[in-house]
Structures are given as structure tokens and as C-alpha cells.
Amino acid sequence: MPNANLHADSRLNIEENVPLAPFTSFRIGGPARFLVGARSLRELQEALRFAQKMQLPFCILGGGSNLLISDDGFPGVAIRLLMHRVTRSGGMVQVQAGFDLTTLVHRTVAWGLSGLESLAGIPGTVGGAVRGNAGAYGGAIGDVLATVSVLDTVTLQTVTLRRDECAFGYRDCRFKRDPGLVVVGALLALVPGDPDQIAAKVAQTLAKREAKQLSCDKSAGSFFMNPKVDDADLIDRFEEDQGVRCRECRIPAGWLIDQAGLRNLRVGGAAVSHRHANYLVNTGAATAADMVQLARLVRKEVQMKLGVVLKEEVSPLGVVI
Ligand SMILES: Cc1cc2nc3c(=O)[nH]c(=O)nc-3n(C[C@H](O)[C@H](O)[C@H](O)COP(=O)(O)OP(=O)(O)OC[C@H]3O[C@@H](n4cnc5c(N)ncnc54)[C@H](O)[C@@H]3O)c2cc1C
């Protein structure tokens, strides 16, 4: 991995032909033509200028916990967001995009601030979480954001948007649909509370995740989003089987995959997890091609057997799922 200082007047650390698999939770993905770690907003701007100068595409890597990268890698500049400052004033927490989400949850517990308890145990960075409106157990990061700061990758200017300008929805927001905007920071509006009660809620979330074995190795968490279903019989079947009401007519994709009898299905080194049917896992030497083929097979079978079309939650880079 030679450290090519190709950007003569910069202190950016630019590496060439770097395998991306180690930067993803799947441990899948070929090399990036260039890899840059951006430790500040200025370095992010410089990295984007470098991509512009080289006339190459760029991509953003957070914690890599929601990314499926092609076996051919990325033929441009991959930028890892490494800026991770966090400051607090009362209930307001200002945090940079590269900060680890789980560390943030624990930090807010120590500060006696409530609002992030249901997000405990979700891997990745704050920026990645904002971009995908990550959440669990009825809560999502978009619920507690006051503002989001983004960098426009064309003008290289930052803009701060209020929460109501970000169009947060289920695993969705404005930045997911516009890759020209990079999330660089967020201001969270949290509520002061009793540290012991907040810590107890975090412990409950982690225990629920542990019970469902949601910390599965070499996966990207839930591969598919929970689809909205309009088949009343299927909803009844789900509610009867699970003893719970479905929220907003969304049925867990894992239950559908299970009903279709696909648990343990394999393609090459990729498999539907035996622990959690919506986790597609790399059992050792899976390629992106294996994972894509498995995902397509799962989608086809679920559609054929249950009439529901699954859409991926995982972010593809250089692959079409
Ligand atoms: C074991 C496991 C459990 C999980 N459980 C959950 C869960 O309960 N709920 C949930 O919602 N998710 C879950 N996930 C998925 C994942 O953790 C989240 O989607 C996480 O928020 C992704 O953040 P990241 O920093 O790793 O993003 P990455 O994987 O690095 O990137 C994902 C996408 O976001 C883009 N991106 C990253 N950072 C930025 C940025 N700053 N600005 C703009 N675009 C950006 C990338 O280009 C890419 O397209 C789980 C994953 C794993 C492995």
C-alpha cells in the first residue's frame, strides 16, 4: 500500500490501490484507486478538490457497517471521515460526522442526557447514521436532531439545515437521495435526566439486541428494509405468529424471509444467517458477487412465495442488488 503523496501542495495522506474490505463490516470489497482519511473539514474539502483535479468520482466511508462494495473496488477517491470532535452545552450536543455512534450513546449516558438510548449497539459513525436515519425499537437518530451540517461537494461550502429541512423518514432522508451532500456534523437536542435511568434504558436496549443476536459478525445488519405491506391476511398471519401489532403496516423482512423458508440459504461464501434471517453474512470468503446473487435470490423467493418486494437497506457501491 504505497503512500503516494500525489497532491504535492497538501499534507493529505493519499494512499493508492488500497483494499476496502477491511473498512467494511462485511469484510468484502476490492481496492480503491485512492484512499484518503479526512481528519477535519479542511481535509475533506482538500480530498474532494483532489478528486475534482484528477477527474475521478469520490465516495464516502463512515464506519463501513452498511456498505456492500464491489469485488472490483472503487475506481476513484474513497474518503474516510475521521473527524470526531464532540462538545456539549446543556442538553445540546454538537458532534462531528466521524464520531462513533455507540461511543456517543455511552458519552450521553455519562452526561445524564436522554434521547439516544434506543440506538445503543448500532455500529458506525454519526454521519452514516444521520444519512440513513439509523434506528431501532421505534426510535431513530432523526428524532433527536436539531440541525445537520452538510458539505456541498460541488461548491465545497457547508450549509446547516434544520431537522424539518432534512426529510427524515424510515431509514431515509434528504442526504441519502443526494450523494452530493456529505454530512459533516450534527447538533442533537437531548433531554437532561437521571443518569441511572438512562443507563438502565441503554442496558435494556443492549440486552434486547443480545437476545436477538444482533451483533452478528461479518454482516451489515439488516440487509433489507421492513416493507410496507397491504395484504391484510399476511399482516394477520404475522401478528398471530409473533403476538405483536405491526407498526405502520411494516412487517419485519426477517420474518418474511423465514416464512419463505430461506434461513441458511447459501450462495458461495454468503449465507442467510441462521440466527437472524434478515442478516446476510459473509461466512469466510464471500465475494460481493456471492452476496448480490444471494440477495437477489432471497428477494425473488419472497416475492414469489409471499407477494412482497424487498428493498435493500444496505448501501451498494459499484454493485447492483
Ligand atoms: C451488526 C450490525 C447491526 C446493525 N444494526 C442496525 C440497527 O439496529 N439499525 C440501523 O438503522 N442500522 C443498523 N445497522 C446498519 C449500520 O450500522 C447503520 O446503517 C449505520 O448507521 C451506518 O453507519 P456507517 O458510518 O457505518 O456508514 P457506512 O457503512 O460507512 O456508509 C453507509 C452509506 O452512507 C454513506 N455515508 C457514510 N457517512 C456519510 C456522511 N457523513 N455523509 C454522507 N453519506 C455518508 C456512505 O457513502 C454509504 O453510502 C447494523 C449494522 C451491523 C453490522
Automatic annotation (TrEMBL):
<dbReference type="InterPro" id="IPR016169">
    <property type="entry name" value="FAD-bd_PCMH_sub2"/>
</dbReference>
<feature type="active site" description="Proton donor">
    <location>
        <position position="222"/>
    </location>
</feature>
<dbReference type="InterPro" id="IPR036635">
    <property type="entry name" value="MurB_C_sf"/>
</dbReference>
<protein>
    <recommendedName>
        <fullName>UDP-N-acetylenolpyruvoylglucosamine reductase</fullName>
        <ecNumber>1.3.1.98</ecNumber>
    </recommendedName>
</protein>
<keyword id="KW-0274">FAD</keyword>
<feature type="domain" description="FAD-binding PCMH-type">
    <location>
        <begin position="27"/>
        <end position="193"/>
    </location>
</feature>
<dbReference type="InterPro" id="IPR011601">
    <property type="entry name" value="MurB_C"/>
</dbReference>
<comment type="pathway">
    <text>Cell wall biogenesis; peptidoglycan biosynthesis.</text>
</comment>
<feature type="active site">
    <location>
        <position position="171"/>
    </location>
</feature>
<dbReference type="GO" id="GO:0008762">
    <property type="term" value="F:UDP-N-acetylmuramate dehydrogenase activity"/>
</dbReference>
<keyword id="KW-0132">Cell division</keyword>
<keyword id="KW-0573">Peptidoglycan synthesis</keyword>
<keyword id="KW-0961">Cell wall biogenesis/degradation</keyword>
<keyword id="KW-0963">Cytoplasm</keyword>
<dbReference type="InterPro" id="IPR016167">
    <property type="entry name" value="FAD-bd_PCMH_sub1"/>
</dbReference>
<comment type="similarity">
    <text>Belongs to the MurB family.</text>
</comment>
<dbReference type="InterPro" id="IPR036318">
    <property type="entry name" value="FAD-bd_PCMH-like_sf"/>
</dbReference>
<keyword id="KW-0521">NADP</keyword>
<comment type="function">
    <text>Cell wall formation.</text>
</comment>
<dbReference type="Pfam" id="PF01565">
    <property type="entry name" value="FAD_binding_4"/>
</dbReference>
<keyword id="KW-0133">Cell shape</keyword>
<dbReference type="InterPro" id="IPR016166">
    <property type="entry name" value="FAD-bd_PCMH"/>
</dbReference>
<dbReference type="InterPro" id="IPR006094">
    <property type="entry name" value="Oxid_FAD_bind_N"/>
</dbReference>
<dbReference type="Pfam" id="PF02873">
    <property type="entry name" value="MurB_C"/>
</dbReference>
<dbReference type="InterPro" id="IPR003170">
    <property type="entry name" value="MurB"/>
</dbReference>
<keyword id="KW-0285">Flavoprotein</keyword>
<feature type="active site">
    <location>
        <position position="313"/>
    </location>
</feature>
<keyword id="KW-0560">Oxidoreductase</keyword>
<keyword id="KW-0131">Cell cycle</keyword>
